[in-house]
Design a protein that fits this description.
CATH architecture of the largest domain: 3-Layer(aba) Sandwich
Oligomer: single chain
Helix content: 40-55%
Distance between the termini: 35 Å
Number of strands: 2
Strand order of the largest sheet: 1-2
Order of helices and strands: HHHEHHE
Shape: globular
Radius of gyration: 15 Å
Number of helices: 5
CATH superfamily of the largest domain: HUPs
Length: 96
C-alpha cells in the first residue's frame, strides 16, 4: 500500500534538503545567514514577485533548468520572466 503525502510537505522537505546540501558543499557562501526561504503556492512568477514585495526582499535568487531552443520557446522561462518584471536584482542559478 502506498502512502500519500501532501505536496507542500514534500516540497518543504526538498527545499530543506537543498539548503542543507548548499551549506555543506559551499561553506564559504554565507547566504543562509540573512536569507529566508519560503514555500508558497500559486502562479510561480506572480507569487515570487508578490512575496518579494511583501517581505521587502533585497534580492531574488532562483534556479533555472537552462532550457534552450524549441523547448525554451514553447515553455518559456519563469526565471527570465522574473528577471524582466522584478524591480529588485535577480540572480539565476543554473542547474548543473
Amino acid at each position: 500500500m502506498k502512502t500519500l503525502f501532501r505536496i507542500e510537505d514534500v516540497a518543504t522537505e526538498m527545499l530543506n534538503e537543498f539548503m542543507t546540501r548548499l551549506v555543506k558543499s559551499s561553506p564559504e557562501i554565507k547566504c543562509p545567514g540573512r536569507s529566508k526561504t519560503s514555500l508558497v503556492s500559486g502562479l510561480p512568477v506572480t507569487r515570487i514577485l508578490e512575496v518579494a514585495e511583501i517581505v521587502s526582499a533585497g534580492m531574488i535568487i532562483m534556479g533555472s533548468q537552462g532550457r534552450t531552443g524549441l523547448e525554451h520557446i514553447m515553455l518559456g522561462s519563469r526565471a527570465e520572466q522574473v528577471v524582466h518584471l522584478s524591480p529588485i536584482p535577480v540572480t539565476i542559478v543554473k542547474a548543473s
